[in-house]
Design goal:
Layout: H1 19-59, E1 75-76, E2 84-85, H2 88-95, E3 108-112, E4 115-121, H3 125-133, E5 140-149, E6 155-162, E7 176-177, H4 183-193, E8 201-204, E9 225-228, H5 229-234, H6 238-260, H7 284-292, E10 299-300, H8 302-310, E11 317-319, E12 324-328, E13 334-337, E14 342-345, H9 349-365, E15 384-394, E16 401-411, E17 417-426, H10 434-456
Antiparallel strand pairs: 1-2, 3-4, 4-12, 5-6, 5-17, 7-10, 8-9, 11-14, 12-13, 15-16, 16-17
Helix pairs in contact: 4-6, 4-9, 6-7
Length: 457
């Protein structure tokens, strides 16, 4: 094929130029004019852009900065008018300086910049008032009662008494020794890590409520007691749980299950709650102390105690607690709405069912049996499945004794369930025990619901 070139000049060798040579000559012929033209166009565009930016800066409307310390809207609302929602962390910032007494009211307002926000707590006012009126303060240094809807994590009551701070409420205080309620964690860990069940046979030597190093030896003689995991849990036998900690679980499993049950990490809540602590060292005897709750270094808040108990009716799931149902802004726009949220799985559903057997055994034949005696004749308690765990330990100076009850109650007909956590620091004399407050809370919560169910049927 032949090409007809417009330029017939020949290169130095007298031959017709190639196609590449022709294109090179063509670019050189036009290059000057083209480059200058492009530079002029680009310069004009750049100057126009600069003028537009300057105009926008000069005419930008003034927007006042958000007030210091106020929460930042985090995401678009779902199911409401489009706009920002507050995250749980934002709500925590918003309520950090509010007295806890505000949150046990029906509804209250707060200022957020130049806006008024309306807070609707989850507290059941009737239950809150009932329990507050029954506090026996005369012989107690601290009393803390937490009642929570098991399925949703909604806090229904947050009743507290602090002898040294009349305005205080110790329900969120994470400095109470957990004592034997940590056996809930140990039992769950032993069933999964050591392949035990509620019926597994275990042995121990010596007294039930001591924990000497000699009791951790795996010996079998005529003084050896045989028991089951369910019975040792119900009777709170320290040597059994000490041996589980030192011989079966060890440091890694104890740390793993403590974290799964919410220890050593922050609890997601609308109010600041410092983490409960369960330090585990590399010492085998310390593993026994942690596993049995025979120490003062494992500490927990009463709020966290309710979460431990709720693991059972929630098939092994650890919930996020909530005390705020809703926050609305101007024109009633919903900025925050709580809802059931499962934080993580603590144990499997099968293990949770076994834990229920252990906790029901505690109420029927264990350390809580006196508190719930004659419940079969009670019009309310007879309609419920109740399980729990008790615990007790002196403080470091031995002038106060911490008394725990954490547990759950479930209505057999409706399957409605609550979790209850109570701690009382008794002084010289013992007044009303933690289990008694728990019984009162369970009766008061279910009484009107059972009565309404009878009427409707």
């Amino acid at each position: 094929m032949k090409f007809n070139f417009p330029h017939k000049q020949s290169p130095g060798n007298g031959r017709r130029p190639s196609w590449r040579d022709y294109q090179t000559q063509l670019k050189r012929g036009r290059g000057g004019r083209t480059d200058r033209h492009r530079l002029l166009i680009r310069g004009g565009i750049l100057a126009a852009a600069v003028l537009v930016v300057l105009w926008m800066i000069v005419h930008k409307p003034a927007v006042p900065p958000p007030p210091t310390g106020t929460p930042r809207p985090a995401q678009a609302a779902v199911g409401t008018t489009s706009g920002p929602l507050l995250s749980k962390a934002d709500v925590q910032d918003l309520l950090a300086d509010r007295p806890l007494s505000d949150l046990v009211a029906k509804r209250f307002d707060v200022r957020w910049g130049d806006q008024k926000l309306s807070i609707e707590p989850s507290i059941d006012e009737t239950l809150q008032h009932y329990l507050h009126e029954r506090l026996y303060e005369r012989t107690s240094r601290y009393i803390a009662i937490v009642v929570m809807e098991a399925a949703s994590g909604r806090i229904l009551a947050l009743v507290g008494y602090d002898q040294r701070d009349p305005a205080g409420n110790p329900c969120l205080d994470p400095h109470f020794p957990a004592a034997s309620i940590f056996k809930i964690v140990t039992a769950g860990a032993a069933m999964e890590h050591c392949n035990l069940s509620s019926r597994s046979t275990l042995t121990y030597n010596g007294a039930k409520h001591t924990l000497y190093k000699s009791q951790l030896k795996d010996i079998n003689n005529r003084y050896t007691h045989k028991t089951t995991l369910a019975a040792s849990f119900a009777e709170s036998v320290n040597p059994v749980f000490g041996k589980l900690g030192s011989h079966c679980l060890g440091q890694q499993a104890l740390e793993q299950y403590a974290a799964a049950f919410g220890f050593n990490r922050a609890i997601p809540f609308e109010l600041p709650v410092p983490p409960s602590q369960a330090p585990v060292t590399d010492d085998a005897y310390q593993w026994a102390e942690v596993a049995s709750g025979f120490n003062r270094q494992t500490v927990i808040s009463p709020l966290h105690g309710a979460l431990l108990a709720a693991v059972v009716p929630n098939a092994g799931m650890l919930l996020e607690p909530t005390i705020v149902d809703r926050i609305t802004g101007p024109q009633g726009r919903v900025l925050y709405r709580s809802g059931p949220k499962q934080e993580a799985r603590a144990v499997t559903p099968e293990t949770a069912l076994e834990l229920e057997r252990l906790m029901r055994e505690t109420v029927s034949r264990g350390t809580a049996r006196k508190i719930f005696r004659n419940r079969a004749k009670d019009r309310v308690l007879s309609q419920l499945v109740i399980g729990g765990k008790t615990g007790s330990i002196d403080n470091k100076t031995h002038d106060a004794r911490y008394d725990w009850f954490v547990g759950f109650a479930r209505h057999t007909a409706s399957q409605t369930a609550i979790a209850v956590s109570v701690v009382v620091a008794h002084e010289k004399y013992i007044g009303r025990r933690a289990g008694e407050y728990a019984r009162l809370a369970i009766q008061e919560y279910f009484r009107p619901r059972i009565a309404a169910a009878r009427k409707s049927s």
